[in-house]
Amino acid sequence: MNCPKCGTEVKDNAQYCQKCGASLNPESVENKVEGAFSSFAASTEAQVKNVIEDVKEGYQGKENEGPLETNRGLLSYVLLSIITLGIYSWFFIYSMARDVNTACEGDGQKTSGLVKFILLSFVTCGIYPIIWEYSLGNRLAENSKRYGMSFQENGTSVLMWHLFGFIICGIGPFVAMNILIKNTNRICDAYNKEKGFYK
User: Fold this and answer.
1) Within-domain flag for 59
2) Are residues 147 and 199 in the same domain?
3) Do 59 and 162 form a contact (C-beta atoms < 8 A)?
4) Which end of the chain has fewer CB atoms < 10 Å from its terminal CB, N or C?
5) What is the pLDDT at residue 141?
């Protein structure tokens, strides 16, 4: 029998490869986790390639042509941002702005993309992201009516969580981001249904 990872010949009853240490039990938790991670890595790599292509082509807020993402979550946003030392948060902002611009097209507004977000964040010493979130919260609330919904939270809710949320153990910015994520998911889901992406 050969190791599925490195190809080294191993004994038939071996549990681990003596060369690379890979588990030889296909049902092991290690192999399941490795398979899930490989799948996630491939998906993320494809998304990053799309971002790079958009930047090379001079991305100007091009709308998404397929179904919009509806399963964003605060936990994955926080964890992946920590793991990637903040890089994932920029990708998150990029994809959220792209999807909101697609779903809310025609409302006379434009959510700033990643380049403007990064540049103005540096220029304003970190104030612009709060302005960006405030504007996004208002835009989502205004466009909810377009899709037959009504959001209780808007940009003011987001701003209040930022300003006063630090009193509650510093969780305000996370609550504000969760509001934006939840409302973006709902708008994108309504857009996908309207465009017939769900069968």
Assistant:
1) no
2) yes
3) no
4) C
5) 96
- Please give the mean pLDDT across all residues of the chain: 83
Residue 24 lies in domain: 1-50
Tokens for 27? 């049902």
- Which residues does 64 contact at the CB level (< 8 Å), separation at least 6? 98, 99, 102
- Are residue 46 and residue 107 in the same domain, yes or no? no
Write the secondary structure of the chain as one string of H (helix), E (strand) and C (coil).
Answer: CECCCCCCECCCCCCECCCCCCECCCCCHHHHHHHHHHHHHHHHHHHHHHHHHHHHCCCCCCCCCCCCCCCCCHHHHHHHHHHCCCHHHHHHHHHHHHHHHHHCCCCCCCCCCHHHHHHHHHHCCCCHHHHHHHHHHHHHHHHHHHHCCCCCCCHHHHHHHHHHHHHCCCCHHHHHHHHHHHHHHHHHHHHHHHHCCCC
Which tokens belong to 157? 């809710």
Give a yes or no: residue 24 inside a domain: yes
The torsion angles phi and psi of 115, rounded to 5 degrees, stand at: -60, -50
Residue 34, in any domain of the structure:
yes
- pTM recorded for the entire structure: 0.67
Total count of domains within the chain:
2
Residue 70 lies in a domain: no
Q: How far apart are CA 67 and CA 83, in angstroms?
A: 27
Amino acid identity for residue 134 in this structure: Y
